[in-house]
Write a structure and sequence with these properties.
The chain is an all-beta fold and 116 residues long. Helix content is 0%, strand content 59%.
Length: 116
Amino acid sequence: QVQLVESGGGLVQAGGSLRLSCAASGRSFNTYKMGWFRQAPGNERESVATITWNVGRLYYADSVKGRFTISRDIAKKTVYLQMNSLKPEDTAVYYCKLETGTGNYWGQGTQVTVSS
């Protein structure tokens, strides 16, 4: 079984920063892509940022470009999301997603709350 453990969420004032981490573990798997999604109350889950594992190709949602940075540590099988200049509209539960050749996996989610 593959497990994703997320950490780093919390409460921060607008303009502040947070760093999310997501570590993958479990049975052997070939990672294709990892990324971060978020879901605010009443909204659908949306993609925030993704990174392909081998090449490191990046994707960012327009709403976070220039403020968020996704990165990975291949040896640690960990993906990070550095979030700067946070806004109240960034408030959501953030989920880590792992895409492999045999299936997709989700983390349990971590709450990010940005106060105005």
